[in-house]
Amino acid sequence: MPRPTKTPKAPLVGVLMGSRTDAPYLAPAREVLQQFGVPHEVRVVSAHRTPEWMFEYARTAEGRGLQVLIAAAGGAAHLPGMVAASTVLPVFGVPMPTTGLQGVDALLSIVQMPRGVPVGTLAVGAPGAANAALLAVQVLALQDAQLRKELQRFREARRDEVLKDTHA
Questions:
Q1: Separation of alpha carbons 38 and 61, rounded Å
Q2: pLDDT in tens, 71-126
């Protein structure tokens, strides 16, 4: 008898990038979310080339069950801020190192949000993407005891790695 197929869970995290070229830098975010079993969706949403789609995505995110958004962009990096202006969901911005300034321009753009429209701004590139996903997991773990336990085990494993290296 065939086993029943598992119905995939609706995404809880939206991972947005301004361009397909951002995908390699966002890979660590996807890996972290997969590691913790957090359902997520990934979309290319450009603040400059597809503004209507960006606003629609942000405005409908909560109603579709999303709880956290990760938005990555380079250069002028308007995506995280414009998404944050269109939803009350937490938005974590990840600057992309896609210009001659290696992401410093994007970092300054994302971090300079006006009062009342916060964006949690992370490090440039892949390290920031991984930490954005970990922050998303922490937010979700506030309401999910099992996820909180997994996050605690993850933290303990990081601690143990450092202790092992320290005492080698």
A1: 16
A2: 999 999 999 999 999 999 999 999 999 999 999 999 999 999 999 999 999 999 99
Token reading at 90: 């937490």
Structure-derived torsion over alpha carbons of residues 32, 36, 39, 42, reported in degrees to the nearest 10 = 0
Stretch (H or E) spanning 69: strand 68-74
C-alpha 56/C-alpha 82 separation (Å) is 11
Cβ atoms of residues 97 and 103 within 8 Å: yes
Which tokens hold the place of 50?
């597809």
Q: Please tell me the pTM assigned to this model.
A: 0.93
* 59 Cβ contact list (under 8 Å, min separation 6): 86, 87
Please answer whether residues 137 and 33 qualify as being in contact, where contact means their C-beta atoms are separated by less than 8 angstroms: yes
